[in-house]
Write a structure and sequence with these properties.
Layout: H1 2-8, H2 58-75, H3 95-105, E1 121-125, E2 140-144, H4 145-152, E3 156-158, E4 164-166, H5 169-174, H6 178-181, H7 200-209
Antiparallel strand pairs: 1-2, 3-4
């Protein structure tokens, strides 16, 4: 692998360190095979780094028109009854990177239960993004999906001292929650790097504004 990278970069030192970038695709969509768009003539199958297109260029404008035409067709066929009209949205910038960093910081373990089954682990904002919270790692916790829902709805919280607390409301409203009360008062798992620890101010905000203890 190192030799191949050195070959691509014309680097004679095959034992040195290499910075390898990574790109993550978000909000992807797929056309049916019959609607695939042929690659423009300016596309080369030997491209190693990256290639971009914009609508200021002929090929980029052509791609945009073809995609738009296909999207109109899909909106007028079988998808019309299942989905609303296409609209522009304002995505949360940094959401995907936030999730990746928090997952790795917590070594793929739920901060409360230590669960390691990745499909049920979710990244939770301590202070919600909609309330002015950031995508900084210190504003995130890796939680099992049920703990995440309880956290967002104020049934559980984490104190600035990193204690996991469970509200009496679970017992009062659902006559249940024994599993959660067994975790009450326990210390949560935190990343090894101090800079990645949960922000005490964000935790205090959650205690005061979300938790219904």
């Amino acid at each position: 692998m190192r030799a191949k990278i050195a070959c691509y970069r014309n680097n004679a030192d095959r034992h040195g360190n290499f910075d390898i970038g990574c790109r993550i695709l978000t909000q992807t969509f797929f056309f049916k095979d019959d609607d695939w768009i042929p690659a423009p003539k300016s596309w080369n199958s030997n491209i190693v780094k990256y290639k971009t297109y914009n609508t200021d260029e002929a090929d980029g404008f052509s791609l945009w028109e073809q995609v738009t035409e296909r999207m109109r067709k899909y909106s007028k066929t079988e998808n019309q009854e299942r989905f609303g009209s296409p609209c522009l949205i304002e995505p949360h910038l940094g959401q995907a990177l936030f999730r990746i960093k928090v997952i790795e910081n917590y070594t793929r373990r739920c901060a409360v239960t230590l669960e390691r089954t990745l499909p049920v682990l979710e990244t939770a904002h301590i202070k919600p993004y909609s309330q002015g919270g950031s995508h900084w790692e210190s504003n995130g916790l890796l939680l099992r999906s049920d703990i995440h829902k309880l956290f967002d709805n104020g049934y559980v919280t984490v104190t600035p001292e990193l204690d996991f607390l469970v509200s009496d409301r679970i017992r009062q409203e659902f006559e249940n929650g024994r599993h959660y009360y067994d975790l009450h008062g326990s210390k949560i798992l935190v990343p090894k790097n101090l800079d990645q620890h949960p922000d005490p101010e964000a935790l205090a905000w959650h205690n005061e504004n979300c938790f219904n203890g």
